[in-house]
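Students often ask why inverse folding is considered easier than folding. One informal answer: many sequences map to the same fold, so there is more than one right answer. In these notes we will look at a single instance of the problem. The structure comes first.
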């Protein structure tokens, strides 16, 4: 009987057949679950990632502001001011700083500018022979000096002009 021609495998001659799949895959290292290279300790469960201490301890409260102590400065000055006292040609009740008491001023009339002007005016208008000296006898034309009756200190001067 005529046999079928053999399968032409001559073209494959010279090429060794590839190794079976099982042999090829058997050499591949199989993944075997083993101990992990890193310890799998549950860090989150044991301790928090950062210390949960009170932040108030980390940041202490600021020290209380030192309130500036303002002490009222009380300065007592004794000023002798004859406020409201107007020296005219009449005695006035004033405070004498030397006697430290209220006294009534003593008047002293002295010849001032008005006295001399009056004398000159009378001389111009013909009042010779002593008539021009009348203003030196009139107190209303003289300046007034207020003195203390006790210590005779000058408390004020009133000038006509
Ligand atoms: Zn006095």
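Output (designed amino acids):
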């Amino acid at each position: 009987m005529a046999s079928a021609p053999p399968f032409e495998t001559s073209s494959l001659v010279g090429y060794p057949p590839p190794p079976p799949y099982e042999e090829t895959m058997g050499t591949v290292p199989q993944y075997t679950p083993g101990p992990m290279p890193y310890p799998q300790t549950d860090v989150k469960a044991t301790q928090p990632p950062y210390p949960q201490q009170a932040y108030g301890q980390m940041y202490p409260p600021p020290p209380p502001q030192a309130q500036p102590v303002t002490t009222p400065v009380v300065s007592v000055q004794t000023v002798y001011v004859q406020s409201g006292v107007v020296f005219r040609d009449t005695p006035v009740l004033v405070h004498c700083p030397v006697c430290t008491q209220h006294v009534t001023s003593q008047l002293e009339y002295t010849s001032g500018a008005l006295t001399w002007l009056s004398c000159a005016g009378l001389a111009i208008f013909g009042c010779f022979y002593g008539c021009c000296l009348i203003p030196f006898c009139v107190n209303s034309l003289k300046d007034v000096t207020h003195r203390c009756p006790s210590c005779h200190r000058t408390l004020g001067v009133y000038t006509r002009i």
